[in-house]
């Protein structure tokens, strides 16, 4: 029987792996653009997941376990009342922040739902989505992610906007657009 629990700092490596999967590798590219010279990329990403504040934090994450093994996660938080500036962000992140800024203010922003491949096709992503929270919700996914789009649409999400996915020297998207979905 799966168990959903709040993440702890000890879950940071799991959070990093699942976030990289959920972002189609873009999270790793963003960390690569931010990591100080000479610092290990994986250690940098883990330290970010262990932060007490900010969106990408263990505090905004719940871990799904199956027989004690990490199976997946959901990371979400309420959108801030004011739009976020995007001009100083890496080019890959700007379309995502632009879409976040179009989401209803105060909505629960589901930053990531991810399930490790060995645990897929068991309804865990649907469970994570159902347990994300109540009220208005928004999320962003790649335009080619057919399984996720099918799940989100069946749960009542509709497309609100789309922006071209932007690549850089660290990451090239395998799809054309990021989609903002809301319910």
Strand order of the largest sheet: 1-2-3-4-5-7-6
CATH homologous superfamily descriptor:
Gcn5-related N-acetyltransferase (GNAT)
CATH architecture: 3-Layer(aba) Sandwich
CATH class identity: Alpha Beta
Q: How much strand?
A: 25-35%
Uncertain runs: none
Pfam family, one: Acetyltransf_1
Protein name: GNAT family N-acetyltransferase
Keywords: Acyltransferase, Transferase
EC number: 2.3.1.-
Features:
alpha+beta; GNAT family N-acetyltransferase; seven-stranded mixed β-sheet; 6 helices; 183 residues; Aminopeptidase
Structure overview:
With 183 residues, the protein is of the alpha+beta class. The chain has a single domain, classed as 3-Layer(aba) Sandwich (Aminopeptidase). 30% of the residues lie in helices and 26% in strands. The chain has 6 helices and 7 strands, in the order βαααββαβαβαββ. It has a 7-stranded mixed β-sheet, sandwiched between helices. Strand 2 and strand 3 (69-78) form a beta hairpin. Helix 1 (12-22) crosses helix 3 (41-49). The chain is globular. The chain starts with a strand and ends with a strand. The mean pLDDT is 93.
Secondary-structure topology with pairs:
Layout: E1 3-6, H1 12-22, H2 26-34, H3 41-49, E2 61-66, E3 69-78, H4 94-102, E4 108-115, H5 124-130, E5 137-142, H6 146-154, E6 158-164, E7 177-182
Parallel strand pairs: 4-5
Antiparallel strand pairs: 1-2, 2-3, 3-4, 5-7, 6-7
Helix pairs in contact: 1-3
């Amino acid at each position: 029987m799966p168990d959903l629990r709040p993440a702890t700092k000890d879950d940071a490596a799991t959070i990093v792996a699942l976030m990289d999967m959920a972002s189609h590798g873009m999270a790793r590219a963003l960390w690569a653009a931010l990591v100080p010279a000479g610092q290990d990329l994986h250690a940098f990403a883990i330290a970010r997941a262990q932060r007490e504040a900010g969106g990408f934090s263990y505090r905004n994450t719940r871990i799904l376990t199956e027989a004690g093994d990490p199976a997946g996660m959901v990371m979400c938080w309420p959108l801030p009342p004011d739009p976020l500036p995007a001009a100083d962000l890496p080019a890959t992140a700007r379309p995502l922040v632009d879409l976040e800024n179009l989401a209803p203010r105060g909505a629960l922003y589901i930053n990531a739902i991810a399930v490790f491949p060995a645990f897929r096709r068991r309804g865990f992503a649907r469970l994570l989505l159902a347990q994300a929270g109540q009220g208005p919700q928004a999320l962003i996914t790649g335009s080619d992610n057919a399984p996720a789009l099918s799940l989100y649409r069946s749960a009542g999400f509709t497309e609100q906007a789309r922006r071209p996915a932007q690549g850089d020297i660290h990451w090239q998207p395998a799809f054309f657009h990021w989609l903002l979905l809301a319910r």
